Structures are given as structure tokens and as C-alpha cells.
Amino acid sequence: MARELLKLPNWIRRLFHAFLLTLLMWAVLVVSPFGFGEHLDKYVQDLINTQAGHWIYPDTRQDEVVVLLLTDEIVDAVLRGQWPAPYSFHASILDDLLVHQPRALFIDFYWMNQLKPGAKELVDVLKNYRAAGIEVYLSAPSLGWLKNFWPELVGLVTPVLPQIVMDPMDFVARAYTQGNNELPSAAFAIVNDLNHELENTESRGDMNIFWGTKNNIRNQAWMTPDTAQDYNFLDSLLRGFTQVETPVPYSTTVFVRDLINPVGRTEDEALAELDDHLKDRVVVYGASLTGIQDVVFTPTREILPGAYYHAMALDNLLTWGEQFKAATPRWPDGMEGLSLPWVQFFLLLPIACFVCFRKTNNEDSLREDNDYLRYSTFFGRLCGFAVSRIRLSYPALRFWLAILFYVALVCWVQFSLLDLSVATWAGFIEIFGAGIVLERLSLVERITSFPKRLYRFYQPPEGVRSAENNNISDAFTDNTGRTGK
Amino acid sequence: MLSLTILAAQASDVIKVTEFRRAQINLFDPVSLERVKKVDAGTLALPLNILEVKPSGHYVVEIENERYSIKKRMVRTDRTYELNSSCKNVLAANLDAATRGLGNGECK
Prior knowledge:
The complex is a heterodimer of chains A (about 475) and B (about 110).
Chain A: H1 2-6, H2 10-30, H3 36-56, E1 65-71, H4 72-78, H5 87-98, E2 104-110, H6 119-132, E3 135-139, H7 145-149, E4 158-160, E5 175-176, E6 179-180, E7 183-184, H8 186-195, E8 207-208, H9 217-220, H10 233-239, E9 252-255, H11 256-260, H12 267-278, E10 282-288, E11 295-297, E12 303-305, H13 306-320, H14 340-357, H15 362-366, H16 378-417, H17 422-441, H18 443-457, H19 462-475
Parallel strand pairs in A: 1-9, 1-10, 2-3, 2-10, 3-4
Antiparallel strand pairs in A: 5-8, 6-7, 11-12
Helix pairs in contact in A: 2-14, 2-17, 3-17, 5-6, 8-13, 16-17
Chain B: H1 2-5, E1 16-20, E2 24-28, E3 35-40, E4 48-54, E5 58-63, E6 66-71, E7 75-77
Antiparallel strand pairs in B: 1-4, 1-7, 2-3, 4-5, 5-6
């Protein structure tokens, strides 16, 4: 029976090989012992974000979100270095901002106690925002907090969750929560109110932030990076990430010092420039103060004040809307019931079929081509030899290019159509590399031929088997020479 | 934004408020910067001598023998700007294993 199975038609055997290879690749894709695979996927995602972000992430909405940043200079100059600031200080800043008519305001501060100085002024300014029809969002630890601890603010601000989701493996802030305990996160609440387009996104879980990497011309005009950036694609290819920096940020930035001290060639010009930066923008009001632990470690290996985390999430949502990237796919209509691991299994199957049904070209590659010997000079022979090798390996090259094209297509489908984060499909790229190794080692053939070899192992050697057969034959042979049955 | 930060300002000898940008002007306490009262701009005599330029975005002026501060952005002045600055245009994130102490971040 076993022998019969081993003598199956060639195409069935190859199909079986393809199935096994798919299974192997799929296991590599979904199984992550000790989290190593997942870690690798996220690292690949970060590298792609950093090096290919220019091509992948559009900067079409870069102008719509502005970070209004409170820095040490103002705290030292105005508050004499004292922090936290009284509410009257914030009220004054927000009052100045109101003049420029932002589209919406997110206050990235926890204001926990209404009994501190300046609370009344703050409430007055927030009433002015309401009168101007500008929605204000305030960081709050829980849904009921506002009502219980500062009821005067109910109706003036929308409480939102400013929570940072850090990856436990590398502390990178890749994910952005949609909300928690019925309290929506800042970016989701704001974009929901502005666009009314984020419907039925709860099932997709946390958004995966794709960090913008294009230069912000407005920032580049006046900001300087914290450290010299001597990082390039070759470095990334050879060593991955090599440094942590605080660059000129992607999101448009205005320092509070420039808002309250508008300075230009003329006073009117300075105010007009502020108008140009702030009018009709979503403003994230946050702080970058030395010693205050409100910083994030971004996927592009940058350390930035936490306000930029919300600004980037807002940018992602304004750019992609419901098509934000996440680990859970956004299935097109009619495909809602599908399971991602199964889909990925079937996406892998053609790769395995390519590999297993490919006509072997070993004969070609081993064939001697001595044509190059007809050249008389060393250089001529060298060139001739190179050309002949390329010609002989062309079929293999064509084959791997076809696989590469398919892998790229599959990655694009998962990113653009299913809206999956890079880490979810980065395994396909890794498998492409591993597939070459697998194919070179003929691993699948070795595995599938293992039962056959095991079977042979337990069979007696050919000579012994013949002798045993002879003995049996002898036992059934009678005196007349006839063999018994 | 270039003009907002690279170009900082220093006051010349005596500067004056020449015009109010709003019909009503908030007057603040020059020390605590808390709002004291709101007055009609039309009731204030112009020009108003500016006694002090504060980094908090306020000018200190004297009205009816009382010192108040008013927001820079609420007024026009005859101030001429000298365009130099000691302010940093760096987005600094603290990478040091040290906690911030008081002050020393002021700039002009």
C-alpha cells in the first residue's frame, strides 16, 4: 500500500509538496515562539516606515494639524520655572489662540483640580470657545471624571482619552487606541466629529500609526534638529536602526512663546503669520518640558513630546479615514466572515506552487559554456564569462523575479485593500527570503521523501532479501522442480 | 514661522501703544498676570507709554496712576524691532538621566 502511495503521479506529488511548503510558510507567518517572529515583523514595519515612508505616506493633510507646544523657555520666563502652571496661564494662552480661530482644539494636559488658581478664568475662556463654535477636547482619565470633579466643564469640553499604547517589547508607540471604557481616544473623537466618517471601526481594535517622514516645509523654515542626521538607506540596509534622535517634526509646530510674543518685521505681519499657521487647523496643545515624562518613542526611532503622538494619529485618520492601518483587516463588502490566517494561507499557496512546479534548470546551470574562451584578452574572457553565466541563470532569475512580483502584489493588496499594518504582512517579505534558502536546501523534498527513506531503512539489504526469497522459493519447490504456491 | 522665532525683538528706547486692536481691552496685574478688569478701548488715552516689556507677552502701562499689563497682541505700537534672538529653535526631548531643576531656559 505504501509503495502504491509513493508511486503517485508526479503532479499529485508536487501538489502535495506545494501544500506542505505552504504549511511551512504559513507556520513561519503565524507562529511566533517567544514573540521573536512578531518582534521581527514589527522591526521590518519600522524599517519600511522609516525608509519608504516618503513614498507610502502622503502629506496631503500635513497642514491640517498643528502642535502648539509649551516649552521650557516660557515656563522659565513667565512662571519662573514653576510647574504645573496655574489655570490662568493656560487661559491666557487659549485666549490668544482663540483669536486665530482654530478648527478644533485638543488640550493634552490633565487638569485635575478645579480648586487651583485661575479656574474661573479658564472656564470663561472655554465658554468663549463654545460661543465661537470651536469644539474643545480635554484629556481625562475616565468618562465620569469630568462630571464628578469639574462639573463646570461639562458641555464646554469633550473628555477624551490621551492614553499611549507602548509595545512591551521595545517601548515603541506604534498603536493608538480607539478608546477605553466608553471614553474615546483624542484622535478618534476629533476626526469622528469633524468628518463623521469613522463608523463601525471598533472591531478593528487599535490603529497602527504610520509615521510621516516627509519634511514639513513650515517647520524646516525655522526649526533645527536636535542632533545631526547622518542616517541613510545604506546604513539601514546594513545595520538597521543605529541612533535615536529628535528631528524637526512631521507635524506643523508653533511654540507658545511665539503665540504670546508674536514677532515679525511688523506686528501685523507676525499676527498674519500666526493666522496662516493656526486658522481652521486642528490644534493639539501640549508641552515639551525637561523632566516631564510626556514623551513617546516613535516607530522611526525618534523621541518626541507626547503631543506629536496624537497629532500623527490625527494625521493618519484624516489621511486614511476608515482605511487606517491595523492588525485586523477591513474586509470589503461580502467578505466580512473571512479569517485572516486562512486568507494568508491561500495567498501563500501560489508561491509554493510556483516553487514546486518549476521546471528544474540544473542541467542548464551545469552545462559548460566555453564560448568565452574565444576571446584572446583576459578582460574579454572575463566579460564573456559573466555574460554566459547571466544567460544561463536567466530562467532562475526570471522565476525569482516573478515570485518577488507576486509577493509585492500580495503585500500591496493587504496594505491598500485590507488596510493591514505592515507588521501583519511583513512575514511575506521574510518568507520570500527564507523561501530561497528552503528551495536551495530542497527542504520540502527531504521532508516528503523521509517516509520513503524510513521504509527503506527497515527493509533488509537487497542481497539478504534475494537470499530470503530464494529460501522461500526453495521451500516451495518440489522434486520435479515446480515452485509451490 | 521664520519671522516668529528666528526674528526676536528688543525694545528700543521709549515705545508707545498707538492703537488698540479690539473694542474692549483686558487689563492684567503686572506681577501675577491675573485679569483685573475689562475696559472700553475708547476710554483710554493714546498714546500710552510702555514701561516694561514682559516675556509673557505683556506690556506694562500706567493708566490712572495704576500699573497694569496688557497683551502685546491686543495693541499696535511704534516699536521698532531689532531682529536677533537667543531663543532655541530646537525641539528638545530630554535624553539625559537627570531631572529638571528650576529655570535657566529664558531667552530674548
